[in-house]
Amino acid sequence: MATYAIGDIQGCYTELHQLLDRLAFDPGSDRLWLVGDLVNRGPDSLAVLRLVRGLGEAAITVLGNHDLHLLALWQNRHRHFKNTDSLAPVLRAEDGDELLDWLRHQPLMHYDAEREIALLHAGLPPQWDIPTALACADEVEAVLRGEDFHEFMQHMYGNKPSRWSKKLRGWDRLRFIVNCFTRLRYCDARGELDFKHKDQPGGQEDSGLMPWFQVPQRQSRQARIIFGHWSTLGLYQQDRVHAIDTGCLWGGELTALNIDTLKTTGLPCAGHAVPGEE
């Protein structure tokens, strides 16, 4: 039995299928951990959702920012699609509502206590230890799965508040939590979030910014953390941190990490998006 974590798929169904073949993945005995962003910009988000949902308990996926964007479009159908969206086939599919109801029941964070490994899409602010992060994830998951889901989708977007406080309440608190789990790359030593910088590390130090996982005295540093979201960072494995978004969508690779051996398998990808797009 092997457990593989796979980086951002973003609708690249063919590449996912090829990577699973390369791994000789057997859903009867093996397991998949997916870092989120199953959908958007790639050519077949619908097929990816159907495949992952069809794997049942053999697959765990956390939610990424593009997954939440799809849920927001589903709940607010009057919104115009961005030019880069490739999500219309999901919304128009006969099983679209069923797939999206399944998607909104997926977690923001998965934690294997026995292995002491956390799976999430983007990052954690330095003030959160693992129990705090799990509790914050639970807060948002309860809303996504409950009666306030539609209203939350209308309040989810925005960059503020940008710093954690236990006193945060309401939509501000939930928005901050979502932004950490699904959008975070850089922050300063106090945990002030930055969403402007998206390139690989280098030069941001002048503004006091650093990758979230390099903040001194980060409270989650005792756990091994697997995440995606940061294609310009590429494959990064240091200090119990494993970044595995290697830019499949952009012509890089789709990467699988064996979470027991920490060895990676990469599948070169042709790319389906233009570099420079967000």
Explain what this protein looks like in three dimensions.
This protein has 278 residues and is α/β, with parallel strands linked by helices. The protein has a single domain (3-268), classed as Purple Acid Phosphatase, chain A, domain 2 (4-Layer Sandwich), CATH 3.60.21.10. It contains eight helices and 13 strands. The protein has helices at 13-23, 45-54, 65-75, 88-92, 96-103, 130-144, 149-155, 170-183, and strands spanning 3-6, 31-34, 59-61, 109-112, 117-120, 186-187, 193-194, 210-211, 224-227, 236-238, 241-243, 253-258, 264-268. Strands 3-2-1-12-13 form a five-stranded mixed beta sheet, with helices on one face. Strands 4-5-9-11-10 form a five-stranded mixed beta sheet, covered by helices on one side. Strand 4 and strand 5 form a beta hairpin. The radius of gyration is 18 Å and the shape is globular. The chain starts with a strand and ends in a 10-residue tail after the last strand. 45% of the residues are buried. Mean pLDDT is 93; it is low at 274-278.
Question: What's the quick description here?
Answer:
With 278 residues, the chain is of the alpha/beta class.
Please specify the SSE layout and strand pairing.
Blueprint: E1 3-6, H1 13-23, E2 31-34, H2 45-54, E3 59-61, H3 65-75, H4 88-92, H5 96-103, E4 109-112, E5 117-120, H6 130-144, H7 149-155, H8 170-183, E6 186-187, E7 193-194, E8 210-211, E9 224-227, E10 236-238, E11 241-243, E12 253-258, E13 264-268
Parallel strand pairs: 1-2, 2-3, 5-9, 9-11
Antiparallel strand pairs: 1-12, 4-5, 6-7, 6-8, 10-11, 12-13
Helix pairs in contact: 2-5, 6-8
